[in-house]
Design goal:
single chain; 174 residues; alpha+beta
C-alpha cells in the first residue's frame, strides 16, 4: 500500500528537480549533463505529473476495449540536468486509469542499430507496447513486458555491440 499523506517537509517535483540540477551542476562544474524524467503519481486523484529534462518521452498505453492507444508525452521540455542554473522547471500532468501502462526508456533502446545499420526505432517500440496485451482479457505484467521487449531488442541487434546504456521502466496502473 502507498502512504497518501504528504509530510510537511516533502519537496515538490520542481524543488527536487532544481536541487538535483544544482547538485550535479556544482559538483561537476557543468561538465556532466544528464537527461531525466521525474514523476509524481497521485493515486487518489489518478494523476501523473512529470518534469522532462530533455529525456525521451513518457509513453502511456491506454487499454481500451476496442483498441490500444499509445500517447507520447514530452512537453514541456526543460534543460538537461547540470546544463545551467535553472530557477524554474515546468511540469505537465496527465490522467491515468486502471489498466494504463506507463513506459520510460533511454535512447539506447530505440537508437540501437543492427548489422544492416537499421535502428530499433520508435515505431517498433510503439508496435511492441501496443501489441503486448494482445486480445486476451489478461494484461501482461510490466515485468513480462520488459522481458519481451529486451528479447526483441537483443534479436534486433544480434551480434552488434550495444551502443549505449538501455534502461526500461514499465508501470501498470492498477
Amino acid at each position: 500500500t502507498f502512504e497518501t499523506r504528504k509530510p510537511k517537509d516533502q519537496f515538490t517535483l520542481e524543488e527536487m528537480t532544481s536541487a538535483l540540477n544544482e547538485a550535479i551542476r556544482l559538483t561537476s562544474k557543468s561538465q556532466i549533463l544528464m537527461t531525466a524524467m521525474l514523476l509524481e503519481i497521485d493515486f487518489e486523484a489518478r494523476k501523473l505529473s512529470y518534469i522532462n529534462c530533455s529525456h525521451e518521452p513518457l509513453l502511456k498505453i491506454t487499454a481500451a476495449p476496442d483498441k490500444k492507444n499509445c500517447e507520447y508525452f514530452m512537453e514541456p521540455n526543460n534543460f538537461r540536468i547540470g546544463q545551467q542554473s535553472v530557477t524554474e522547471y515546468q511540469r505537465a500532468s496527465i490522467d491515468i486509469a486502471p489498466g494504463d501502462l506507463l513506459f520510460l526508456y533511454t535512447d539506447g533502446l530505440t537508437n540501437q542499430k543492427n548489422e544492416k545499420d537499421k535502428e530499433f526505432g520508435d515505431r517498433r517500440l510503439t508496435k511492441i507496447l501496443t501489441a503486448s496485451d494482445g486480445n486476451s482479457k489478461q494484461q501482461i505484467s510490466a515485468q513480462s513486458l520488459n522481458s519481451q521487449l529486451m528479447s526483441q531488442w537483443q534479436e534486433h541487434r544480434r551480434n552488434t555491440p550495444p551502443e549505449d546504456d538501455v534502461t526500461l521502466v514499465a508501470l501498470r496502473i492498477l
